[in-house]
Amino acid sequence: MKKVFALVLALALVLGCFSFASADAKTYKVGVSIYQFTDNFMTLYRNEIENYFKSLETDDVKYEITMADGKNDMAEQTNQVQNFITQGMDVIILNLVQTSSADAVIDQIVAAGIPLVLINREPLAYDADGKTLDEAYEGILNNAQVCYVGADARQSGTFQGEMVAELENHGDINGDGKISYIMIEGDPENIDAQYRTEFSVKALTDAGYEVECLDDQVGNWDQTKGQELCANALTAYGDKIEVVFCNNDAMALGAATAILTAGRTVGKDIYLLGVDALEEAVQLVKDGEMTGTVLNDHIGQSHAAVDVAVKLLNGEPIENYYWVDYVKVNKAYVDAQ
Ligand code: BGC
Known about the structure:
By secondary structure, the chain is α/β, with parallel strands linked by helices. The protein is built from twelve helices and twelve strands. It is 45% helix and 19% strand.
């Protein structure tokens, strides 16, 4: 019995030593501000940021993450950033509410000497000529430790258009020689919305198809709004609508409900496209209730954002831009998975 007791005591000492060692661990303070917690896609993204940071922890390195909800309010988010600065965050990950406010916010963070990883909402900066953030901000950054992690929204738009072009009738259900579509857009301030709107249609015209835009409305990435806009358009234009392009899946899920309610059938008398590859949307593609979606790789993007944040914490050199590819998700793709 004594022996058992001694053994337990020895074990407790050893464990005590270990926990003493980890009490000595370096804890990095990470401030993350997300433009809006209720956004379906950004919910997956932010959860993965936390999970992935946790998975990288060791006995010696810990990450203390403060996750803030920007509530789609730039003033609220500016406040959060100021709190992050006061709290002495070691790195900040920022999903801007308004990309047009980027320089003001970036300026404050850079002035405080805190490295910054911008995600998902690309500040106006980048263009096809491949500017660096420094060039785009005309030297405000002075080679500061700032970068953007995202996906090139032109690619997602192109994939949406290609999925229509690849259909047997190329989206021209009534055979009148043109593809008649409606567009349901995300927040127009977001470059993702602008590019997806432009490039989905461009993929069709580039391939030589004639298109006709029946309706183009802003659904602000929101499912309820997407349903409402699609229902209105179906009432106004009826059978004329051959293709419904939605800038994201949340709005496409809403549109899918409106299409069902209107007694229309995806794949037969109408086509429906989204972006993100949310689980519910992939299921609809599998069931034939959506024509296709595009994987907006939240895992790849969140991991890239965390990996570069860790590099910044370690004082390693970084790039200005990190791009993660989109993937076309149509029925053939889902069935092959
Ligand atoms: C996603 C949308 C999301 C938006 C938030 C986009 O990349 O496709 O679903 O609402 O980011 O900024």
